[in-house]
């Protein structure tokens, strides 16, 4: 009986698969028929149904470099039936994000991302302009960032204090001045998650100061689940039959993740509404305050979508370049020493570094720029989609085409950058690289609205770590800088380091 059921089960899967395969082939043929008179950019040979999906190996930006090297600075690909262009020259990227910016201002709607109304996922529309304006003007403007600097400073103080304490606990007379091993990725990820949650909602997700342990644990699982699922290239996004069958359970997991995040944030908004705003200055409170005058503009749904966007868009993105910068500094101890000398001269050792110190720490800024040039957080930016047919370099790009700008490749262009593969923060000193094309935060209408916050945060975290502690590699070998794949561009091996508090900072570390 069981075997019979199994056979029927297999038979029905085969029928569904054949049926859906037929639909996919028909869609692809229709697409090719409709577009075969258009002059499309060069393209490698495509397979039926899959198009060029079979060529896409991880990390994707490296596969696309190979394709661009063979076919030119603008290439055309089909991800199953979804058209895409790959741009790998700064001249074309500049064109796409200036004269064609409005035409390319939609987002690719991926079905595995089940929140189409976040700032980063919504198509260009009055709704998107509305939520984007709230984020840029009311929450992430310089004035607002100035008002929230204490929150960031508190979290960073807390982190250096924890590092100091856990080092002290393991130090003893038999091993004075010893270096302690640290999971750097975990430490920085938890810090940036806590900073974003504190800025948005006044709650932490990690550490011993969390309030509702069980609920926080569930929310944490949902958020990290979202990063994992969004970071995996989900074939389900391109082949409808796989989406329906959901053999890997991706759609089911994403549904759970979405529900938990939406419910939790909704609950936080309700709590803030009931408790009144008081002295807190969180982003949710600010939106509730503004909503008192205009509820339509600040409905719970709008507040929820903005809060979720900023949490997902602002945490891993900021943690990732701090990890890369530390890895690069450990492999380039001269640059680490130069940054330390600058901090000691400008900030000293009688107080912890502040955000406003960044104006006097140009070398630290050069380190951050060089890190973002070599290892941009989003090597292909976040895919845009064309809202209409566009003509680029004589090619006709159909409406609904995904735009992948390979800024990783462009930012290493030997025509623009001397020794492009080398970590040389000095190339940014004294405005020496002014005018050279770089866009780690994107360009145009969909450019990252969190750039100013990210720059403040990265400078402060990296600066505090360099000011307070000595850093070493695990052994004599260089840190392995191989790239992994994910939502952001990660180091393939999570960074682990050795650290110890600097003697001259002991008084400060005891106070914070
Ligand atoms: C080093 C840190 C960061 C980097 C490198 C970065 C980079 C980017 C990039 C490349 C994009 C896509 C631009 C495009 O589509 O052309 C983007 C979009 C976005 N980022 Fe960031 N980001 C960072 C931090 C942040 C922070 C801290 C926030 C907010 C708290 C944030 C919020 C957003 C949002 C909301 C979008 C979507 C914009 C839209 O679609 O209209 N990001 N970011």
Distance from first to last alpha carbon: 70 Å
Radius of gyration equals 25 Å
Biggest sheet strand line-up: 1-2-8-5-3
CATH A-level architecture of the domain at 127-377 and 440-511: Orthogonal Bundle
- Using DSSP, what is the number of strands? 10
Average of per-residue pLDDT values: 90
Fill in the CATH topology of the domain at 127-377 and 440-511.
Cytochrome p450
Bound molecules: protoporphyrin IX containing FE
Tally of individual helices = 18
Helix content: 40-55%
Shape designation: globular
What is the topology?
Elements: H1 2-35, H2 60-71, E1 74-79, E2 82-87, H3 90-97, E3 106-107, H4 126-139, H5 142-147, H6 149-170, E4 180-183, H7 184-201, H8 213-231, H9 240-245, H10 250-275, H11 283-293, H12 300-314, H13 316-331, H14 333-346, H15 362-374, E5 384-385, E6 390-392, E7 395-397, E8 402-405, H16 407-410, H17 451-468, E9 469-472, E10 496-501, H18 506-511
Parallel strand pairs: 2-8
Antiparallel strand pairs: 1-2, 3-5, 4-10, 5-8, 6-7, 9-10
Bound molecules: protoporphyrin IX containing FE.
Protoporphyrin IX containing FE is lined by residues 119-120, 132, 135, 309-310, 313-314, 317-318, 321, 377-378, 381-382, 384, 440-442, 446-450, 453-454.
Transmembrane segments: 12-32
Membrane topology: Single-pass membrane protein
Subcellular location: Membrane
């Amino acid at each position: 009986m069981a075997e019979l059921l199994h056979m029927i089960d297999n038979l029905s899967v085969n029928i569904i698969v054949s049926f859906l395969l037929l639909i996919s082939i028909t869609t692809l043929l229709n697409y090719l028929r409709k577009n075969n008179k258009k002059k499309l950019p060069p393209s490698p040979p495509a397979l039926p149904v899959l198009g060029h999906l079979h060529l896409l190996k991880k990390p994707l930006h490296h596969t696309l470099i190979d394709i661009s090297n063979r076919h030119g600075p603008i290439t055309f690909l089909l991800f199953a039936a979804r058209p895409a262009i790959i741009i790998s020259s700064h001249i074309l990227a500049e064109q796409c994000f200036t004269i064609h910016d409005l035409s390319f201002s939609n987002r690719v709607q991926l079905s595995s991302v089940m929140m189409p109304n976040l700032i980063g996922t919504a198509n260009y529309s009055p709704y998107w302009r509305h939520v984007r304006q709230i984020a840029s003007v009311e929450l992430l403007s310089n004035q607002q960032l100035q008002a929230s600097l204490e929150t960031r400073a508190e979290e960073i103080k807390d982190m250096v204090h924890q590092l100091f304490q856990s080092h002290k606990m393991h130090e003893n007379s038999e091993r004075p001045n010893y270096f302690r091993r640290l999971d750097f990725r975990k430490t920085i990820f938890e810090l940036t998650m806590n900073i974003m949650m504190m800025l948005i909602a006044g709650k932490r997700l990690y550490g011993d100061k969390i309030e509702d342990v069980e609920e926080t644990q569930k929310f944490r699982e949902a958020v990290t689940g979202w990063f994992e699922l969004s970071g995996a290239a989900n074939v389900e996004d391109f082949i409808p039959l796989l989406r329906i069958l959901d053999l890997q359970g991706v759609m089911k997991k994403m549904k759970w993740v979405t529900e938990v995040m939406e419910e939790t944030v909704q609950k936080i908004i309700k709590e803030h509404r009931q408790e009144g705003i008081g002295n807190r200055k969180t982003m949710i409170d600010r939106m509730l305050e503004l909503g008192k005058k205009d509820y339509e503009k600040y409905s719970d749904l709008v507040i929820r979508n903005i809060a979720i966007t900023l949490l997902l868009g602002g945490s891993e993105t900021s943690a990732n370049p701090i990890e890369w910068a530390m890895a690069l500094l450990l492999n380039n101890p001269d640059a680490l020493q130069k940054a330390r000398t600058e901090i000691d001269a400008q900030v000293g050792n009688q107080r912890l570094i502040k955000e406003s110190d960044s104006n006097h720490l140009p070398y630290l800024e050069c380190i951050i720029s060089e890190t973002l040039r070599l290892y941009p957080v989003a090597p292909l930016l976040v895919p845009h989609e064309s809202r209409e047919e566009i003509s680029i370099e004589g090619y006709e790009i159909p409406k609904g085409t995904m735009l992948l700008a390979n800024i990783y490749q462009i930012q290493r262009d030997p025509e623009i950058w001397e020794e492009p593969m080398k970590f040389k923060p000095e190339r940014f000193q004294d405005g020496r690289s002014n005018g050279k094309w770089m866009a780690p935060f994107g360009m145009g209408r969909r450019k990252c609205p969190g750039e100013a916050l990210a720059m403040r945060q990265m400078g402060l975290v990296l600066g505090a770590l360099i000011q307070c502690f000595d850093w070493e590699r695990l052994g004599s070998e260089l840190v392995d800088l191989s790239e992994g794949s994910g939502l952001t561009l990660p180091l393939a091996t999570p960074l682990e380091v050795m650290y110890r508090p600097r003697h001259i900072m002991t008084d400060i570390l005891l106070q914070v």
